Amino acid sequence: MTGARRTALVVLLAAGVLLGWAGPARAHAGGLVATDARSRVVAISPSVAGLSIVTIESGAKLRLVNQGRLPVSIPGVTAPVQPGTTRTWAEPAATPAGRHADGDWSLTLDIGGSPVVVRGVFDRVTPPPFAPWWAGVLGLAVAVPLGCRRVRRGDLVLAGVGLLAMAASVTHVIGSSLAVTSAPFLGTFVDAAGVNLLAWPLIAGGVVAVGRGRPAGLLAVCAGAALTAVFVLPDVTSFHRSVLPFAGPATLERLLVVFALGGGAGTAIAGATVLRALAARPEAT
Questions:
Q1: How far, CA to CA in Å, does 29 sit from each of 138, 143, 194?
Q2: Residue 156 — pLDDT band, cuts 50, 70, 90?
Q3: Top-level class of domain 38-124
Q4: Contact, 21 vs 196, CB < 8 A?
Q5: What are the phi and psi torsion angles at 36 (to 5°)?
Q6: Where do the structural domains in the chain lie, given as residue ranges?
Q7: How many CB atoms are closer than 10 A to CB 13?
Q8: pLDDT digits (tens, 9 = 90+) for 90-141
Q9: Distance of alpha carbon 98 from alpha carbon 122, whole angstroms
Q10: How far apart are the C-alpha atoms of 55 and 82, rounded to whole Å?
């Protein structure tokens, strides 16, 4: 077995292990999900001096700031919020995903033995047409393998598309992590990236190897692109929902998913042809 073929075998085995380890990919950073509504606080009754409550992360959580003189007790939250402190928590009643955004919502707090009612509403947002985004994914997944057969340097095309899928995936994870305001960015990013922390270097290293004329480098690109596509697959909910957990325009998020999924899948599919061509070579170095 030649050095290139041994490298190819290692790459393919590593890809298989990583795919199995990845398991069910997480939908978004911080456990946030796409919905069709935004939640917001509209009133606190009676008004309490120094008390403020707002929704964050499109209503996935509430943030209470207590600048008053008395502790604030929250149903379901063990420790009261002491004066001069802030508390962030997930409140099912105010979460669009938990209530399907039907009607208003309310939450009763206890301040010094007196009830204080927090009232909120769900602002519904019309979902976008999903067909164009799915068409983009399928178009890329089909166009990449077909295009590679019609050009002389199909390896460079695949390397370029794999790099595009990686860039889209990186940007997608960064935007999703920035949408989580209740946790430090670095930890959220690492947790959200998951297996991509191995897939991205695999693609980048493979692109460098392709540039140096090493056939096994293209297999690395294809394996990394396949992992990228598998990992971003749960995020196709962005095609069907209007409020996305992404720190940027919703259109940009959908485009990133199209490029990461369609480009990654197309590169992986074309990689099968590349593997056969590599195996057919009598001698590779």
A1: 25, 30, 10
A2: confident
A3: mainly beta
A4: no
A5: -115, 20
A6: 3-33+128-280, 38-124
A7: 11
A8: 888 888 864 455 678 999 999 989 999 999 999 889 999 999 999 999 999 9
A9: 12
A10: 20
